[in-house]
Amino acid sequence: MKSRRKESSLEVVRSVYTSKIISSHRDLVALVFFGTEQSKNPRNSFKHVYVYHDLDEPGAKRVQDVEALRGEKGAQFAAETMGSGETSLGDALWCCANLYNDIKLRLSHKRLMIFTCRDEPHGGDSTKDRQARTKASDLKETGVVIDLMHLMKPGGFDVSLFFCDIVSPPEDESELGLQLEPSDKLEDLKKRVRAKEQKKRAMARLNLCLGEGINIAVGIYATAVSARKPGAIRLYRETNEPVRSKTRTFHTQTGSLLLPSEIKKAQVYGKRKIVMERDEVDAIKKFDDPGLFLIGFKPMERLKLHHHIRPAVFLYPEEDEVKGSACLFSALLEKCSEKNVFALCRCISRRNYPPRFAALVPQKEEVGEGKVQITPPGFNVIYLPYADDIRTLDPPQHPSATQTQVDKMKEIVSKLRFKYRSDAFENPVIQQHYRNLEALALDMMAPEDTEDLIMPKVEQIDHRLGPLVQEFKDLVYPANYNPENKPAAKRKTDTGGGAEKKSKVEMPEDELRARVQNGTLGKLTVPVLKEACKQFGVRTTGTKKQELIDALIARLSS
To answer: Within 10 Å of residue 462's Cβ, how many Cβ atoms?
Structure first.
């Protein structure tokens, strides 16, 4: 049991390392063991604390180091390297504080995760308990968030015995029950660590105006962003160091370097060039200050699927900005859900952004097993189209299906229905890309196999449908019809013994010279200009219209 908990913790550490390498390679991560026999830390100031990895950017070497601790050989290696000794969480926290202090960079956020299966790590030693509580309080005052990733043990894990005074308070209401339940499954532990390690950064913080003098502070969050393969990094071929590109603007006549203040923008209106300063351009773009302004409420049935013209974002209250925002936001969310309506707003998300109509669709909280939040409470912001964005289509007319054919297709659809979850399908292209990179970085013989989860399971589909497919074909297609055979190409009817080739367009030399003098040579099409070049033996290296005109002018002027 103890070995399984250790393996789960190391698997989570490895998962954090690999995810940081992919998504946030500039984040700094450290791995510290406490309760060890051997000591290894800066200046060896603390006994029974072993700093396995210093606070630094994760890399392939660190993933290999964690792999070396897994399995039976890993357990033996850990016993020889670190061993098992007395436990002092206060010294471990103090050591972590020194690791933070040794970093000269400015850190946006600091988080410390404690993995343990012991609800009383000091065995009731009040002195060590008091030292740990004091050091945890000091860390929290410096902005360090302490989280407990406690594992299931026989008899249960009682947080109230000791760790309730160590961990940081929940960052929002969705985490109230998260810290009380221990994890007994690897996937649950991974989900909890993933939810903690990802910093919830707001795309923008705005005021939601409900009326004159009534403002709610809200944050806009992106709950789903298209995952893409990272762009290629240009390296200097001799040193493999990344190169930086700079763009400079020069005067076309003098060749002098232009400063940003010397550059203006212009637009031609009515054959007149209108020159504007940058400040004037910004003033033209600005409609109003950023924010959300409530216009009214509409029934949910008025919101159609084709109104979604861009990815939706998520709205959540910011209590730190304006006191009382969470309470009023919660009341608005409850009433909109109760009456099944959405709020219609005018939205300007950032400075100099054009205004958009947005529908605030209420979303209630959903909590799964282990009190892990599945769906957060808040509003989904659906950006609505303008009248200019809507197109009127003229679809082609086709014969309608009979009621028998429709009923048969309904049977097929009902047989193939399943519960869809977007988080159950990974992008196979991106997964294979990172598997290949991981294999190269870790010197693996071959990359891990990637399962294409979006590949249709043909055998299961055929088993479910049975004879329905053939019955549908018999109802829709004619007898002996094979959709895989290409239809025979239609033969063109001969009129007058065969199709005549398109006659070449020839132009007299006098007419061409007249066009050169009048400056109307540019009105001829490219095929006519090409034929004229052949006619007068003009050799051209290009096929652009201006090149053909220049060649003809040079030939006819000589």
So the answer is: 10
Identify the three-state secondary structure at position 358: strand
Residue 93 is given by DSSP the state H
In terms of domains, do 312 and 207 share one?
yes
Q: Is residue 261 part of a domain?
A: no
The answer to whether 472 touches 405, Cβ cutoff 8 Å, is: yes
Predicted confidence (pLDDT) per residue in 89-98, tens digit: 999 999 999 9
CATH number of 103's domain: 3.40.50.410
Q: Which residue has the tokens 């203006």?
A: 264
φ and ψ of 358, to 5 deg:
-135, 140
Residue 299 lies in a domain: yes
Output the CA angle 484-488-491, nearest 5 degrees.
165
Give residue 214's domain range. Answer: 202-226+286-388
Give CA–CA dist 41/461, Å, rounded: 58
Same domain, 190 and 211: no
pLDDT at 219: 92
Average pLDDT of the segment spanning 291-308: 92
Confidence of residue 529 (pLDDT cuts 50, 70, 90): confident
CB-based contact 208:216 (threshold 8 Å): yes
How many domains are contained in the chain? Answer: 4
Q: What is the pLDDT of residues 442-469, one digit of tens each?
A: 777 778 787 888 888 889 999 999 999 8
CATH of the domain at 525: 1.10.720
Distances from the Cα of 307 to the Cαs of 100, 226, 243, 381, in angstroms?
Answer: 48, 20, 44, 12
In 3D space, the residue among 365, 352, 218 whose CA is nearest the CA of residue 294 turns out to be: 218
3 state DSSP class of 477? coil
372-414 pLDDT, tens digit per residue, is 677 889 999 999 999 888 888 787 888 888 999 999 999 999 9
Answer yes or no: is 237 within a domain: no
If you average pLDDT over every residue of the chain, what do you get?
82
| 556: confidence class by pLDDT, cuts 50, 70, 90 | confident
pLDDT of res. 403: 92
Give 336-381 pLDDT, tens digit per residue: 999 999 999 999 988 888 899 999 999 998 877 666 677 889 999 9
Consecutive H or E run containing 149: strand 144-150
Are 291 and 331 in a shared domain? yes
Tokens standing for residue 387: 């009248």
Place of tokens 């890399």: 59
Provide the CATH number for the domain around residue 440.
1.10.1600.10
